[in-house]
Amino acid sequence: MEISPFPFLNQEEISHLYSSLFQDMDNNSLTSNDNINANLKRRRKDGEDDEDKLGGLRKAKSNNNSLMSDILTSLILLDEEEKQEHQQWVIESQHDKATFDWNHKRKLEAMNDYHSHLQTHFSDLDEMDGSGTKRHGRCASLTAAAVAVAVTETAQASSEQSGSGGGSGHQRRLWVKDRSKDWWEKCNHPDFPEEEFRKAFRMSKATFDMICVELNSVVTKKNTMLRDAIPVRQRVAVCIWRLATGEPLRLVSKRFGLGISTCHKLVLEVCSAIRNVLMPKFLQWPNEDKLKMIKGEFESMSGIPNVGGSMYTTHVPIIAPKINVAAYYNKRHTERNQKTSYSMTVQGVVSPKGVFTDVCIGYPGSMPDDRVLEESALFKRANRGALKNVWIVGNSGHPLMDWVLVSG
């Protein structure tokens, strides 16, 4: 093997090598120093950021503490207000109890006074009258009178106390509320115009007076020790006004100066009296003489002989009943008014002057006109042969029969 000779470096090449070597070492040292400085700056910056975060956390914690203190303060104030309201309620309850006890004490004192007075009076009666039965009747009447007077004085004492507390000293009877009767007194006055009366009650004064006379014995009430009875004319007027105008009972009550429940009761009582007293007397099928006169009047009007009456079936709107609601549902009224309607049928037969000679009332609104006619007393009268040679004129809803003429 041949070994090549190794070249030796001269002085210049060795100096050049040393200079390049030391220059690289200086560069590396400078680079490392720069990296160390950069790391130190980064650590300082991170420390400052951590301090900022800690400050934000301390600030948020202080805000939460202030919010909690506000909530606790509000709860304490609400608790104090509730305690004050409870104390006020206790004070008012004690005051009401004291007022009730005072009224009760006054009532007991009044009753005791009247009881002692009655005992004294009864002892005088025992000395004057030896009849036990007569004495018993007087005792009962005097006891009732004493109780009524005691209740009256108790009510007056209560009204005086409430009046002194509220600034009003007006006294009222316990069982009667003062209401204005000016409108009815004006209508009931003899000088009230006939036209205005007819416009209000849909009838003349003479007819109204006749109804009052006919119903006097049925609707009259006696005065009691507690209140005076409502006069017959006012009772009849309430019912007729309600029937003639359909005005709500609330407005009828204000117009006549009576309570709403009283007006409702009067309407039912007078309607029942009209049905039992006036209807059998004035609503009758005509006899032969009257029927002959009616036929003549119809013939002179229409040229058709033997017409004994004109028949029509109408529907009276009612409130939905609680029982058998579907039977009173009126499909025609519901479709026309776009509102669910319930009704009751009224079938009537009238003379040429518009006087009713037959009425059938009360069947549900869902029944057609022909069904109502079949259930009426008029149909039964015709089946018995009481309508021979008599025509009853109906409408398109009635069936064509040997005694029924149907108009187109």
Describe this structure in words.
The chain has helices spanning 11-128, 132-166, 182-188, 194-201, 205-219, 232-245, 249-256, 260-282, 288-302, 331-337, 369-375, 377-383; strands spanning 307-318, 342-350, 356-364, 391-394, 404-406. The protein has 408 residues and is an alpha/beta fold. A five-stranded mixed β-sheet has the order 3-2-1-4-5. It starts with 10 loop residues before the first helix and ends with a strand.
Q: CA-to-CA gap between the ends?
A: 150 Å
Please compute the radius of gyration using only Cα atoms: 52 Å
Helical region count? 12
User: What proportion of the residues form beta strands (DSSP E)?
Assistant: 5-15%
Q: Helix/strand/pairing class, anyone?
A: alpha/beta
Number of DSSP strand runs: 5
Features:
408 residues, alpha/beta, 5-stranded mixed beta sheet, 5 strands, 9% strand, disordered N terminus
